[in-house]
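Lecture notes, part 5. Sequence design as translation. It can be helpful to think of inverse folding as translation between two languages: the language of shapes and the language of residues. The source text, in structure tokens, appears below.
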């Protein structure tokens, strides 16, 4: 993905995706169905945000889902690393969600990932996760290109 010079993703970006693949493996290995069942709560909140296009509400529920992933992996070091990385990467993730239809695609991807975790099918989880990564990066690139084509000031706060 070739982003315009001013928009290069932080070097940590691929690390976050790889870190989550490790977490998915740990979740499947731990096989704690009670915790995996709790993922549905956050999926429902994500879904509830879609009809009104509430990107912030969706984003917040999605981040809680990610925190549940790390909680289910029982690894405080990985959780701390994720939280630290997300401080830099959250604006990029948020921008990719703001692209038309991204919320719907994202929800479908997360539902597939959670279904794979419930089925203990690591290969399908990772495959879907990597597809999600590619789609999110494509959406982010389109958001950036669109912004470059529209004259005027940048929006100062993505999280409003």
């Amino acid at each position: 993905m070739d982003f315009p010079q001013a928009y290069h993703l932080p070097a940590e970006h691929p690390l976050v995706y790889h870190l989550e693949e490790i977490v998915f493996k740990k979740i499947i290995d731990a096989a704690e169905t009670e915790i995996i069942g709790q993922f549905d709560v956050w999926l429902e909140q994500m879904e509830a945000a879609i009809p009104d296009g509430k990107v912030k509400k969706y984003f917040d529920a999605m981040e809680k889902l990610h925190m549940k992933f790390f909680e289910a992996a029982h690894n405080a070091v990985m959780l701390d690393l994720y939280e630290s990385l997300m401080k830099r990467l959250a604006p990029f993730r948020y921008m990719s969600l703001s692209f038309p239809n991204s919320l719907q695609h994202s929800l479908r991807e997360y539902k597939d990932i959670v279904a794979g975790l419930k089925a203990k099918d690591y290969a399908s989880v990772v495959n879907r996760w990597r597809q999600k990564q590619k789609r999110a990066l494509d959406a982010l690139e389109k958001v950036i290109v669109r912004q470059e084509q529209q004259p005027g000031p940048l929006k100062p706060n993505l999280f409003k």
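The translated text above is only one of many valid answers, since several sequences can fold into similar shapes. DSSP finds six helices and no strands in the chain.
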